Amino acid sequence: MSAIAVIEYIIIALMVVSAIFAVEWRDLLAAVVGMAAVSLFASILFFMLQAPDVAMTEAAIGAALSGAVFILAIKRTRRFESEEEEKPGWWVRW
Amino acid sequence: MMKRLLAIGLILVIGYWLANGLAGVPFGEDRMLVGQYYLDNVKQQTGAINAVTAVVVNYRGFDTLGEVTVLFIASTGVGALLWRRKKERTAEVEGSVVLTTGTKLLVPFVILFGSYIFIHGHLTPGGGFPGGATIATAFLLLYMAFTAYEIPHKGFEKTEGVAGMSYVLVGLIGLAIGGYFLFDWIWQTWKIGTVGELLSGGFIPVIYMLIGIKVGTELSGIIDNMIKEGVSE
Known about the structure:
The complex is a heterodimer. Chain A is mainly alpha-helical. Helices cover 77% and strands 0% of the residues of chain A. Chain A has helices at 3-24, 28-48, 52-76, 90-93.
């Protein structure tokens, strides 16, 4: 296995991990950070697959602007997922 | 727990089904049908080095017009949803001195680089959309660093509309000269410039300048709409 393939596997693994964290975290600001990390790794992956146009667009839109729009939306609503889900009742949590 | 297990099981089934389908497609082999035509003819037919922007603007220009329309509708929708008679910025904490000074230094460079990206769309990677997004990032930086900053609203909206109309106008001139919408009249009939230099690429740089200005003003407008809050009069 070549070095490039190893780096690609690492980036794909990091991308999957950050995607899982982005949906798992209850703190929505942390979830935005996870989403921006997915965008960053997707951008690196596009670059490694020799698509610089797509990589630039992904970096500009996904990392900067959509993250900013999400954070502005969180600022005007709530930062944490609702408290009801933290209560112990199993019928509420799932 | 049941719901989550069911969802994971369903996703695994869908993933297996997709992977099964994709396993039949070899990766990295030369299987181009239309792609080979683009690579062979792109320089001579469009005058651009960057095959991606040539395809996006020239061969498949109608798709780009559709994308610009989608972005315009998104911007209009945000404006309509968050409409208030009186909107003001409610931020109270000014950015730190390092942030404000850094923003003052950085914003011209960011705007310059965004302009570079969309002006050189036919030569280097990029084009109108990343260039416009970079310019919008500069305005986002200004919004974050200064509590009082607001984009000049009327001017921005008019610029956006004029840029969008000019795109359609360039296409309509092509319709008048060449017989179909978005015909590349600058390259096909006049042959301005030599391939590989800035002054080439037919109408790709012209359209990408318009798209860059449109996307930049549009995304700045979305940020402006989202950052301001309605106040009672």
